[in-house]
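From the shared-data thread, chain only:
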Amino acid sequence: MAIVIGLDIGTSGIRSQAMELETKKVLSTAITLRHPLPGSNVIDHLDFCINNGIDVGHNVVVKSVDSVLRSLDVDLSQVERIAACGNPIQMSIFQGIEIRDLAYAGDAALERIGLKRLERKTALLDADQMGLDSVKPTTQVCIPPSVAHMIGADAIAMIVKSGMLDRKETALVTDYGTNAEIGLMVGDDIYTGSAAAGPAIEGQEIEKGMLASPEAISDINVVDDELRVTVLDNSMIGKLSYTLNLKDWSLLRKEAEYIRPKGITGTGTIALIYSGLKAGFIKLPGIATPDKKIRLFDNEINFHEKDLGEAGKAFGAFRAGHLTLVNHLGMTMHDIKAAYMAGAGGTYVDPIKAQGVGLVPPNVKDIYQVGNTSLAFACDIAKDLKTIDNAQDIAERLKSTHVMFPVEQDFKNAYLVELGYWGGMPMDMYRKFLKRYNLPEYPENTVAPNIHRVVIRDIPNLGSKGLHIVRDIGTTLTVTFEGCNGCLICENACLEKALKIEEKNGGYEAVIRTEFCDGVSCRKCEASCPLGIYDYSKYVVKKKIM
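Structure, as tokens:
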């Protein structure tokens, strides 16, 4: 039986599906709960690969992909093709090609350092060229084309798989992930942009945050003086699980389909903030409770003001992106008639709540929730390579209409205003600043949209063998620093508990579990070394943890 595999390498984790080639039947699904590289956003991953070497980053990702493929519970010797999808940074790391050009938005900066922008076209490689050892060496690996700096195959996927190309009215599609890929279709033209929203939108950088997976809080509703909490089950379906007393966060009752939660997803965070603003226990920029926190499950899952701030930064990036694209075309927010929500965040969140915190434009007539378009598109390519021709055609179309947010003054201004809003700026002042910067008016919502839930979960069909969660991605980095005395100050400075100092051959070896390390945004380990010998850039891949 010939098997093909679709692979989505996202900034927050890896998702994969195995299918029978002849029947196109889905066999199984495997996901990770984190990205294997240190850090929680593409900038962290980019920085790691530049400073530690693309070969090190490539090896970490490839070893993790091997772990995911082995978890699919299929005969990997029968795999004929693997198709991968993701943003340009993730695809470049996976492929092991030049990545430094992606660190610069403008070409002038590249010229100053003697680099040229790499044209990332469709690539067809053998598994042994990629370094994959879980499948046979001749298994074909297909990597779709990228469009521009931060717009890759995942953006093409959301445009194709959302269904927006079949409509004639002005429509906006957004992938609610860390990169905030956005597409605005006006007539036959599609304009794209990408904003680094950060990991809070997917539940990371939130103290008790987690990706959408079983036992994660995915939705919250306030009814009278009650807070009703929805948790994902093993099939990734949200179940009303338990109810809290809104006055003191005590447990009122466990519901019939009670599931003990482990953390909160990005969608749960959106629902909590929307509900908090409506009910009054959140008043920007803070939490209006005596201890400045919201107790979502006993005292085990708390939501703090720092979490609120992280979420606000992410929410602001999306709305700033929407405003920038609309302004780029001389339009108003009223001109957008339909909104498409892609990704896990776009699937599990209540669209009305997302609209209430500015993640969906106001006054759209229709909102469509379309699931994980990146994985779906990868699966399409794996099943039929002709799909890649359509992807290349769309990539060529988008090259002339891509809007580079990092160098757009409109985006910088809009994001500054958004930060002000989440910092406590009143709405009337928010609107005044938009007008001052010649940005589109952000009107109050007066239209009840039609909600079209195209899928019930971000991966609609988990396959006959179901969902497999890879909790241990399985990569470590290691280095021995000459002169290390084993004082453990660096280990104790690691808040994520990713670092261990181990005795080896009469000296000391530093070992990092990559998926837990916060990367460039942290480096407390390096800063804390009293001898000044700790060098984060010296780490190399050690082994897989089986």
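The chain has a mean pLDDT of 91.
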